[in-house]
Design goal:
Distance between the termini: 8 Å
Amino acid sequence: MRYRANRPILTSTAPFAFTASCGETTPDHYWCTRAQSHCELPRPNWLFDARKVEVDVGGNAKIYRSTFDLHGIHSLVPYVTHPVEKESRSPAS
């Protein structure tokens, strides 16, 4: 994601973004709080908002106590998992 005129612009072929406050416990294991994942910025069609996320790179992301919004329809989701591939990462610019 890059910023142009103070607006986030996706620069990858994957149409989603993830933001959170994360602490690393090992190089491939992270605990995150206040996490959000969404697609198609600047007006996302869907949004996950989670209080806690545990990420095992090369394994799964475990999302706890989240809400999922789809086109403005809100639902509570107590637990979700998603595979996390191991690939090179670079800090956001």
